[in-house]
Each structure stands twice: as C-alpha cells, then as structure tokens.
Amino acid sequence: MGPMKPAVSLEVTLTICQDILDKASPSHKEMALFLSLISSSKREDQLEVSTTFSKVKEHFTSFINSFSELTFQEGFGFDPFTMKDILLFLLDPSQFNLSLKKEAGCGLLYGHDHVKLRQTFINLLPHEIRFHCLMKKFSYCRLSSKLSAFLKPVSTLPEILDILDIGAGHSVYLVTASVGEAFPRQVVVKQEALPNQSLFCKLLDSLSWPSYESEHFEEQDWQWEISEYLGNLSLQEMLKEVSVENRDSLEMQLAQHAALGDILGRGDRHFENYMVSTWGIVPIDISFLFWEGNEAWSERYIAGGIYELSILEPYSIEELPKKMKRFFSFYEDTVYFLKKEKPNLENQISTFFSSQNMDVADKLAFVQNRLARIEGYVCEQKKSYISSFFEMKKRLVYKEIVSQLYEANPACLDETPWLKMYYLSDKDRPSCFFLLEEKQYLLHDIERLAALHLEIQPGYFSSQWTRIEKEKNKVLSELCSVP
Question: Domain range for residue 299?
C-alpha cells in the first residue's frame, strides 16, 4: 500500500483547470489562476500570462491529438491520453509516473514513437512548470535525502537543477544536480519493485566487468532505484552507426553477457537495455533475475530479433556459420569462467539477499543447477539460440511486407489492430513480431493483405520459409552435429 494521498482536494482543482481549458476565450484572471495551479509562480503581466497559457494549452492539445493517432480501436487495451490524465499527473504529487495506458500481461507492445511522444509531454513543458511538478513529486516521495546520500557531496548539499523523463513505457527520471564541483552530476531515479539491479552491478564489479553504481531502497512504502547515469547511447542506437565489419568487439561482449544472463536468469536483455560507454557494453534495467523458465523467454526474445545473438542478423548464410561459431565460443568460455567464479557468485548472492531479508536458497539453486551441467547446458542453449535465430529470419520477411503495406496504404492495417501495433512496435527497431507465438494467425493476415494490396502471392512466403529452413539446418549441422 502506498502513502496516503495529499489532503488537498484534487477533484476541485482538476475541475477548475478543465473548465478553464474548455473555454474558448478565458479571462486574464482565469488564465493566471490556471498557471498558478500547475506552477509555482504568480504571474501578473497580461502578455506573459496569455502567451504562457496559450503555449501550455497548445502543448496539451498537440500531445493528446498526436498520441491518439498512435493508439487503436476502443477495447484493444492500448488507450489514448485524455486531458484529465495529464492534468492529474501535473496536479497530484503522489502520481510519480506518467505511464502508457495499456493493459499488462496481454502482449501489447509500444514503439519508439510512443516512447518519444510520452517523454516529450513532460520534457517540452516550460521549464518552470516541469520543474515545479516533478520537484513536488520528489518532495512528496521524500527522495531528497537518498539523492543526497547517493551523490555524496563533499562540502555542500546537492541542489537539483533539472529533471527530465527518459523512461520508455513509464517515467524514469534523469536528475541533474550541483554538488559543489566543476560539473553537475546526473543520476537516474525510478520506482523498482526488486533490488536485482543493485545485486547485478555488484556481481559485474566482482567479476571485473564494466559496472556502475546503483542503490535500491524503500521510502514511503515504495521501492526505488537510484543509479549512475551512463549517457544516452544505447546499443540499439550504436548499431545504427557501426558498420557490420566493425562489430567484432560488440559481438564478443554480447556473447559474454548472453552467457552471464542465462546462468543468472536475467530477462529483458534487449538492445535498448544495453548502454555503450567508454569502457564497454553495460546492461541496465535489471528487473528479472533467477527467472524460472528464462530459457524459454530467451527463445522468444531471439525470435523477436532483440537478444544478443540477433546482432549477427546482417551476415549472409556464407558468413553466418563462422560468426556463430565465434559467438558461441565466447559464450562457452564465459560459462566455464563463471564456473570458476561460482564461490564468488554464491558469496555475493548470499550476502546481498541476506542483508535484504530475502530468500537465498532458491537463487543459489538456480545458478548451481546450470553450472552443474555445463556441457549439456551449453549444447542445449546453442541449439535453442540457433533455431530461434532462424525463426527471427522468417519473421523479418513478414516485417518487410508489413512496412510495404503501410507505405502503400496505411489504412489497410487498421482492420487488424495487432498488425498496426506490430508495425509501430517494430518501426526503427531490429525487433520483429515479439510474442508472435500466441498470434501465428497474423502471418496469414499479412499474406492475405500482401496479395490484395501488393500483388504478392502466397508462394513467395512458402519459398522464403523453405530457403530459411535449409539455412537453419546448414548452420545446425555445422555447429551442433545435427544432420
């Protein structure tokens, strides 16, 4: 249960703000009242009040209208924002996150456009309004003392200079603070139910792998994570800039992290959850560890084009066996390295979770089970990875057709909202139909629409599947001794 709501009646304030926004020509007094309710200053100058009010109202309206174009038919489970939604976020200090309005656990995915638009609602607010709104939330959640302790100022208390939203489906805040040094420091603050990221960073450090500072704590009956900011260059963005010929180091590091992720049961290892720093690839957003069934989830992520092995997608079938052999060599070497580090891993896990008063035995058993059967485990993972990789290859054929359909006639995807969702989710990303396993019928819908709008016949798809299946068998026979 979270903290109690503030005593101030939000309903009254909300009604006042909505009524003023609904008026075609609100008075100077009404506009000034509205601005005073969502910011800290009292404006008197008539031109300043009118200009600021118009700018804010236009920002609200533009955001709502633009986001509605990225949502779906009523009842699909991914809804547009309303004026009430955004006003409540601005007015209610206990609402820490501005989250996408989608049903959880239904396989609904968001895309790059959803993320950027959600972020810009907060980040493009006038600085005074944004800062006032977010500082109220930080104050209400009593985060200042934890921020101060994390920043460890030498002589003066840190002063927060700015807060921006860098989260994806919900708010994650980048805080810039002055700590009496030549340059301000930046940290990331988010709500996080489990302390897995803090543990994972300690494990990376103990293995002498690139790591960063991250601290998990409880405040106001909520769970929080404060971590060092690693910059804005994700692996996904990096791969757009780095040619295939210059990816050897990235491929090696991803193979190593794939092995570590499998042994520790780390999930959600897509390319946006790896940051690229001067000292190498660093994983972020460590929400899932010691996850039973994680191997099955890895298959889904690889088939969806967004896990470590997916970096090899651009290579031709002539180059692929050599590249995969190299990837799995690093993978296997890392598993054996982790076997040697087993006492260290066990000590880190036991010490950390004991201090958190959390169960340790099941987490140790998870790691021990995988390290106890290395040869068999590596072989199983190799076969699983390769099969999933070629499932990704099949899906990429359909992804290209969906893009062509949208370019030819965007409205044709509206009749199948799941296809529109996948188009938006996969746009400008390497992903391809993540979680398609429960929606295989969509491939038939794509074939039907391709015949109708692009004059592409079903035989095209069957020939592609046959080719990709032959390529898969070739790679499996070379790497796994499977006829």
Answer: 232-483
* Interatomic CA distance for residues 176 and 164, integer angstroms: 9
Tokens encoding 23: 């008026």
CB atoms within 10 A of CB 301: 22
> Is 100 within the bounds of a domain?
no
In a domain, 385, yes or no: yes
Q: Greatest CA separation found in the chain?
A: 81
Read off the pTM: 0.92
Separation CA 284–CA 212 (nearest Å): 9
Give the amino acid at 20. I
pLDDT in tens, 377-427: 999 999 999 999 999 999 999 999 999 999 999 999 988 999 999 999 999
SS3 state of residue 282: strand
The whole-angstrom separation of Cα 221 and Cα 441 is 44
The CATH number given to whatever domain includes residue 256 is 1.10.1070.11
Radius of gyration of the chain (CA): 25
Using an 8 Å Cβ cutoff, are 292 and 223 in contact? no
Polymer length in residues for the chain: 483
Q: Please give the mean pLDDT across all residues of the chain.
A: 93
Q: How many CB atoms lie within 10 A of CB 428?
A: 12
HSE, CB side, 13 Å, CA atoms: give it for residue 115: 16
Distance CA 121, CA 481 (A): 54
The answer to the question of residue 149 being in a domain is: no
Chain centroid offset of residue 247 CA: 23
- The number of domains in the chain is 1
Domain membership flag for residue 83: no
Q: Do 277 and 230 touch, CB atoms closer than 8 A?
A: yes
Q: pLDDT digits over 169-194, tens only?
A: 999 999 999 877 668 899 999 999 99
Q: What is the phi/psi pair of residue 189, to 5°? A: -125, 130
Q: DSSP letters along 178-206, please?
A: E-SSSS-EEEEEEE-SS-HHHHHHHHHHH
Of 4, 228, 6, 18, nearest in space to 136 by CA:
6
Dihedral over Cα of 250, 309, 324, 238: its sign: negative
